[in-house]
Amino acid sequence: MKTMPQITQENRNSATLKTIWWRLLSLILILALACFWVMLSATPAYAQANTINYTKTNLQNRDFSHTDLKGAVFAAAEMKRANFQGADLTNAILTQGILLEANLEGANLTGALADQVTFDKANLKNAIFTEAMLTRTSFFDADITGADFTDALVDRYEVSQMCDRATGVNPITGVSTRESLGCR
After folding, report:
1. What is the pLDDT at residue 32?
2. Which residue among 4, 65, 161, 177 is least packed, with the fewest CB closer than 10 Å?
């Protein structure tokens, strides 16, 4: 009769150790492949299309008329007398921008972040500010004829000042300026 070899504790430990190493190696390989897959499909934040950044830039008297500026950043930019007539500034960031005497006639600022902006003496005729954030923003002597402020967040004081001179209907949205501001 043939006897079975004895399985010693040393053999068991060796087999267990080999199993652990193979599992660990397999796990590392799976993680490496997953990381490689993520890296192939990821788009870096700096590679977003159409992202224009004019932060803290002097843009006085610049002509941006009829330009696609969706999502552009103009944070703390100096834009006195700049021309944005008919420009698409959807979801643009204008925080702390100075647009004194700027021309934004017919510009689309839907969803724009324009907090702490100076629109004093600006031409905002037929501009669209729907769903824009306009807190702590100044509109002193701005021409808001036909501008649409539907669902925009505007300080009550500014709304009361603009209601005194709000007239017209926006030719694109068909909403009256007084109605969009909630004037009485």
Report:
1. 78
2. 4
